[in-house]
Amino acid sequence: MSATSKPHEIVERALELSTADGCVVIADEESSANLRWAGNALTTNGVTRGRTLTVIATVDGAQGTASGVVSRSAVTADELEPLVRAAEAAAREAGPAEDAQPLVTGVPHSADFTAAPAETGSEVFAAFAPALGEAFGAARAGGRQLYGFAYHAVTSTYLGTSAGLRLRHDQPTGTLEVNAKSPDGTRSAWAGAATRDFRDVDPLALDAELAQRLAWAERRIDLPAGRYETLLPPSAVADLLIYQLWSAGARDAAEGRTVFSKPGGGTRVGERLAQLPLTLRSDPAEPGLEAAPFVIAHSSGDESSVFDNGLPVGRVDWLREGTLAHLPTTRHSAQLTGLPLAAPADNLILEGGGKQSLADMVAGTERGLLLTCLWYIREVDPATLLLTGLTRDGVYLVEGGEVTGVANNFRFNESPVDLLGRAVEAGRTERTLPREWSDYFTRAAAPALRVPDFNMSSVSQGV
To answer: In this predicted model, what pLDDT tens digit does every residue of 135-150 receive, in sequence order?
Structure first.
């Protein structure tokens, strides 16, 4: 096997080298392209390529099955056998794995398993880059400066197991973030978008949105901390609900450690959490937000298990018309809790609101705040899922259905579960970029939410 072996060949060779009782091999082939700009001019661009190989060895023993996981990048032919042996040694040195299950079987092979990996490159920006240049010209003419970053990656994942699975998934991921600043730097606005191919993003439209927000910020209003009627845009809603999903593991809930634990024992599955008929779901086949239709687990954790690699993933309703319907489970945690198996796909959709846009919701606001996005979100209390964080790049005061100026930023303290219960209006669902989690989670869609008493716990001096 040469250093330039194809990913599927590396998977097959690693499986051949394995002497463990079970083996899972994951080859991730990634290419990426990026553009960066500042002060209305491109500054850098680049293209990268890389390969990461993960070997998971399982060893049966008298007390149970142990697992060992080793991942390395840029693995050459000479390094492949030492990598396999390292995973086997890690398994033999480990104690029995609590999440041990038989390796998944019975999943049909991917027809393109032996095909070359998908790739991206600078050509992904062929239409976007000229449009970005036009946005630079519009910004210069309007006396504002644009800063930002466009990133596109394609990861081809090849998964093979000693139990016979041969699966493949190509995942494109694109993000666009743009900041507009006034010449003196005192006013700042942000806009972002998630995309699969950069054909559906419009830099000129984003610049027009940012120009509007900078114009709103020409009037400054200082507001104290307190509870305010607040319009949360889709980006902020997605950020909060992603954290909620990450905190919704069935086992922790069943053991009484989370907001989804029922007092006295059990979970809150079946309980109504939202007064609006909202549905929160994941679906690997969601148009525009497509994700892997099978489990890809490089390690075991509270909501993932290396033993579940290759397990089919379908649509799961976490919240169905306001009622908690499922909590994330592995095969192991499903057995522990008695809940149905529910493996989350790598996307999240909140729907069930009306058809109104965020602008329509602003027009229907007598007095309240319009946020741009949230930042630096951290957990305060897992028992209630109380989160804290900051607003950023524009908190606008709405009076009489119109934005009348920009307020100071705030630190907030809120639980997304409580917010769902208190939200009184939801707009139309839109694809959005969760700003806080954009390095980890980009495939999301959500409506804007109106919360009558959002808790701005203190004033922040950030821009």
So the answer is: 999 999 999 999 999 9
